[in-house]
Design brief:
Elements (H helix, E strand, L loop, with lengths): L17 H11 L33 E7 L4 H4 L6 H9 L1 E7 L5 H10 L20 H7 L4 E5 L11 E2 L2 E2 L16 E3 L13 E5 L11 H19 L4 E7 L9 E2 L1 E5 L5 E8 H11 L20
Parallel strand pairs: 1-7, 1-8, 2-11, 3-6, 3-7
Antiparallel strand pairs: 2-9, 2-10, 4-5, 8-10
Helix pairs in contact: 3-6, 4-7
Length: 306
């Protein structure tokens, strides 16, 4: 990704006419043609319609982040086993050079949630990260709301390491003392009235439904059955769905799929190199939050927005 000088972004996916450029110059002092502020991948298949890069990120009413497990970019994108995920990639932004931070799973979850792996080199449990800054605590301090929804969590606020196919190692907020136990909920508590969702939430399928122990097709079906309603609603309600992976399967230098869709998103394939810290920085910037850990040195993803 490149950092550009802030300017008013005039988003469009059609070629601008001379008259439109002149009007934009009068209104916002636009001095460059669309597409001049963010080179796209060289291949035609990866290049979106020409448009100027956004200078900021939107402030969605709601963001839902879903974490999947242990599959590389090429395992998912274009796979016949993942028709729903590929439909999301087609209608939203597909980041074609997205990478996890490390191996194994748990430090990647911590990196995405708090900007730090907390020194983890294993899937240890329990982990005590104390009151270190994290996305949940930042949202709460700013008067926003946060909830982590985990499929199979035996009860709200439970700190158990495992229960059936639930695994605490995939629920990083449980590790922090500054995120209340009441903000850790079973997925059964996920609202059907999406307007009642917290500002930002994480959804963690269980080990059978997140591609860890189950198949790609099983996870794809679970996502469609459980989140397609929200994904459709988000398209008309200033909301965003992020589907990310913790790590790859050790086959592609930790390259993973990252899919972002919703009303503010300009569909296309985007080739800048990003990782969990860039995604965290983007989520933080949406709500004017301080940057936690290594997200402070990461560039937010600004070119995918309308």
């Amino acid at each position: 990704m490149r950092t550009t000088t802030p300017r008013k972004a005039w988003a469009t996916r059609k070629t601008w006419t001379t008259a439109a450029l002149a009007a934009a110059a009068v209104l916002g002092g636009l001095a460059a043609a669309p597409g001049a502020h963010g080179a796209r991948p060289a291949t035609a298949s990866d290049a979106p319609a020409a448009r100027p890069a956004a200078s900021s990120v939107p402030t969605p009413d709601h963001v839902v982040v879903v974490l999947e497990e242990n599959h590389s970019y090429s395992d998912i994108i274009g796979s016949s086993s993942a028709p729903y995920l590929n439909s999301l990639a087609a209608q939203g932004a597909s980041l074609t050079s997205s990478f996890a931070v490390t191996h194994p799973s748990e430090p990647n979850y911590m990196a995405l949630f708090s900007g730090s792996t907390d020194g983890l080199t294993s899937d240890a449990c329990p982990v005590n990260a104390g009151s270190a800054a994290n996305l949940g605590s930042e949202l709460l301090a700013a008067g926003r709301t946060f909830t982590g929804y985990s499929e199979g969590l035996p009860s709200a606020g439970s700190t158990v390491c495992t229960s059936g196919a639930y695994a605490r190692k995939h629920a990083p907020w449980v590790n922090f003392s500054n995120v209340p136990g009441s903000d850790s909920q079973p997925f059964s508590a996920f609202p059907t009235d999406y307007s009642k969702l917290p500002t930002l939430s994480f959804v963690i399928p269980n080990l059978n439904d997140d591609m860890h122990d189950g198949t790609i097709a099983q996870a794809d079906t679970w996502l469609k059955n459980n989140l397609s309603g929200y994904a459709t609603w988000a398209q008309t309600h200033n909301s965003v769905l992020v589907v990310d992976w913790d790590e790859d399967d050790y086959s592609e230098s930790n390259q993973i799929p990252t899919i972002i869709t919703g009303q503010p998103v300009a569909p296309g394939k985007y080739g800048e190199t990003v990782d969990h810290y860039n995604v965290l920085a983007t989520l933080e910037d949406m709500y004017g939050l301080p940057r936690a850990g290594s997200s402070s040195g990461a560039t937010a993803i600004t070119d995918i927005w309308k």
